[in-house]
Every structure is written in C-alpha cells, then in structure tokens.
C-alpha cells in the first residue's frame, strides 16, 4: 500500500474511533500523532533517555478513558538541557520511516526554554505532524532534574489501531512519583493553585490503583527535597476553607472544558485528604509509613 493510501486508511479508522469514543476527530488525530512519535522514540537510540510522565502517561494507563491531554511530559536523563541538542534529537527521531501515515515537519521543529513554577528550567519542543492534509501540533515538555521513586519501568503504550501497527515500548514514571509531583505543586501553590488537572489526576489514581505507602512516602520526601518545598503543619490544603467558592468555580469550569463526569469538589478533596494526609503527617513526624491504599475501599490498611 502506498504512503498516500496508508494515510487515507488510517484517517478513516481514526474518524470511526472518534465517533465511537465521543471525542473530536482533531483530538484523536493529535493523540495518534503523539502515539506514533512515541513509537519512533521507542526504536531510536534515545529510548532510555526519555521517561514519559504526566497527563499523557495517566491517560494511556487507563486506555484513554480519563482526562485527555494535548501535550506530552518527559523527564530527560543523561542529556544536556540544551535547545539545539533537543532539536537535533527530535529531527533524528522524526526522520525514522514508519508505515503509519504520519509525516513530521522535520525542518520546522522548534524548541524553547520553559520555567515551571519559577523553580527549574526545562525545554518545550513543538513538532507539526501531518496525516494527509490534516495538521496536528505535538508539544513535548521536558524536565531534567526530578527524581523517580521507584525507578522508571518499561511500558507498552496502547495504540489506536492494534491489529496493524506496533506499539511503543517506552520508559515511564512510577505512579508514586506522579502523585508526589502533583502533591508538591498543591502544597507549594496552596490557595493560589488553579491547576485543577492535578486534583483530578490524583483522584483518578486513588480510585483505580493500589499504592504502597512506603514507596509513596519516599517519593514525596525526595520530590519535596529536590524542589526545596517545605513540609509544614496545618497546611491550608487540608482545611475546609480550601474548598471555597472560587475553587469550586474553577473545578466546574475544568469539568466542562474536559467533558469529564461531574464529581463534587468537596467530595474529591475529602478523598484526597484521606489519601494524602496520613502520609504527609508521617513525614512531618519523621516516621515511616507502611500502609497499603485500597482503591475499592479507598482507605489505608
């Protein structure tokens, strides 16, 4: 089958998937572009240097049933935090020929320095992809200094067209480190926090995943130390006052924008408190935490 015919066939299948999943065709094509870029990464010499994290990782773990995301977050290990170097690497990755209908604008790849919460610098790479004449903008945000507890693991990334295309096998974060980073942002930003996606993501994890408290505690401790974030008693995050009118308005706007099922923000915060506060208190008291989180009962045991 010619490249043009492959692209047309893929495009038709993605359109069918979009209709069945009640997602826009534009979003499905973007997710497909991300998937095929991850596949090229997985067969490149750079596979082990890029560790997928954040929303796209969580979205893929659930088989694309939770919060959709339009960018991909990575922790980069053993490569320089240099824009030109990242452009060179992704030019090489995007040049790998795969019969999946996707073409990347190799000469148009751009990189810029980004600052997350004014604490550390990363790099954002933007790549334009084409499926026939349909265009998507793939955004990759990369950090260079975080810790992962436990160590990264191999992961078979789910694909849209399973019977026809090989799946990316990539390196990914631990869920404990995902929770730790999002929790650290909640503690640091406190009442100024408008990142509702972090609240949803932790809620999604605690309702679906068994978590070992000892590992989570270690991940939180190391993440806070790496980002120079203090652990202090009586934090506003765990108070009733945190669930104010402004936060509830932000939460409802987030749910509408992402087309997610409605969950009361007060209920969500009560569950986050049950999940995170015992671990947080153990760190305050410099105690080890050995509980196991049960997603069915939503309690530590």
UniProtKB/TrEMBL annotation:
Keywords: Transferase. GO terms for molecular function: transferase activity. It holds the Pfam family AbiEii. This is Nucleotidyl transferase AbiEii/AbiGii toxin family protein. The lineage of its organism: Bacteria, Bacillati, Bacillota, Bacilli, Bacillales. It comes from Paenibacillus soyae. It comes from the Bacteria. The keyword Transferase applies.
